[in-house]
Amino acid sequence: MIEIKTSGPLKATVKTPPSKSYTNRALLISALAEGESIVENPLFSDDTHFMCQALKDYGVLAEKEKNAFRIRRNKLQLGAPKNEIYVGNAGTTMRFLTTLACLANGETRLTGDDRMQQRPIGDLLTCLQSLGVDIKSDLGNQCPPLTIQGGSVLGGQTKLAGNKSSQYLTSILQCAPYFDNDTQINVVGELTSKSYIDITLEVMSAFGISVENKNYQQFFVKAGQKYKPRNYRIEGDASSASYFMAAAAISGGEVTITGLNLDSVQGDIKFVDVMVRMGCSVEKKLDSITVRGGRLKGITIDMNNMPDTAQTLAVVALFAEGETIITGIGNLKIKETDRIQALASELSRLGAEIKTGSDFILIKPKVYQPAEIETFNDHRMAMSFALAGLKIPGVKIKNPHCVQKSFPDFFDRFQELY
Fold first, then answer.
1. Is 308 among the residues known to form the active site?
2. Mind listing the pLDDT tens digit of every residue in the chain (418 residues)?
3. Dihedral through CA 304, CA 307, CA 310, CA 313, nearest 10?
């Protein structure tokens, strides 16, 4: 457990870590390329470790170097591993590997920790079954563990529900060039978290693959395309940067964040605009953003395109005048924990008045009180609620080590703000 020190107005500069989303996409795509790729400036974290270990299990060279991963596929076709693959609670790793396993000769069993075995993946399984794959949920509950008979995927035309997770679509898109036939994916309903699909398409394009995107409702991938090996540099993680933007807002200070691509397709890069709406001022330079705190006011906002910063915003809302309503977050229920319920529980513990629904949370500040924050083994709960301790004495974060999932040195960098 860590107790957070309160602070006056901060004045600090901090570098954001590399992007987890870009790193795991680049690792999987490099494993499909014929030749050697170098993934430069990657994120070294639990999630990317699980991805690299799995790729090794499929016979891919995946070497960790000082500030890079060296990836090379040694055989023309992947072979299924002899043992089951365990991915902890790494959602991107589980979902991306599900389709990769379909291309590997033999049987793959994918599993994870207790929470992963509660996280639904049925929409992806149904889609892959329609493309000719023999794949099943071992417990029959549409969650991992999964057993996959791999070797090839027919491809063709299929449909996929878009409202739960964009990772299902990413999983299929990344591997679709290696299906037997052209693949057309028709999205049913509104696609959630579109910015993450933009990341997927950007990385695929960088490795030489063209995808036709018709207004995020239909995606077409031509079979026979091949990824080209290359050196690929990972940009800074906008989700991780949000904590430092929020620190400036909450403390009333000034924090400069470096290492970001201000033209990034990451949806979370727009979190800085959310801080402006709440009352902060912002200065943007070529490779940095400076956020200065101001008098904060509550807002109503749809966070569907930047769901990983919803928890950060919810904690900032504790220190704003009036209520804040965060909508469009129904898919938070199937993340590392049920994040809507987790937010309601821990914000209430700090003294806020909370209302929730299937896809929203309302936060109304009241009288602050100290609390030991339950993280539910969710890295974003730990990092977001650490921010509350800048202003509220006696905030303690349980199980702080869960940040290893995406930002292993978060608390070291957080200390450097003071």
1. yes
2. 999 999 999 999 999 999 999 999 999 999 999 999 999 999 999 999 999 999 999 999 999 999 999 999 877 789 999 899 999 999 999 999 999 999 999 999 999 999 999 999 999 999 999 999 999 999 999 999 999 999 999 999 999 998 888 999 999 999 999 999 999 999 999 998 899 999 999 999 999 999 999 999 999 999 999 999 999 999 999 999 999 999 999 999 999 999 999 999 999 999 999 999 999 999 998 889 999 999 999 999 999 989 999 999 999 999 999 999 999 998 888 888 899 999 999 999 999 999 999 999 999 999 999 999 999 999 999 999 999 999 999 999 999 999 999 999 999 999 989 9
3. -80
Instruction: Round to whole Å and give the CA distance between 24 and 155.
Output: 23
* Distance separating alpha carbons of residues 296 and 322, to the nearest angstrom: 9
pTM of the model as a whole: 0.93
Beta-sheet strand order (sheet of 353-356): 300-302, 324-327, 360-364, 353-356
Q: Please identify which of the residues 308, 359, 378, 412 carries the catalytic annotation.
A: 308
Sequence-separated (6 or more) residues with CB below 8 Å from residue 345: 374
| Phi, psi dihedrals of residue 199, rounded to the nearest 5° | -60, -45
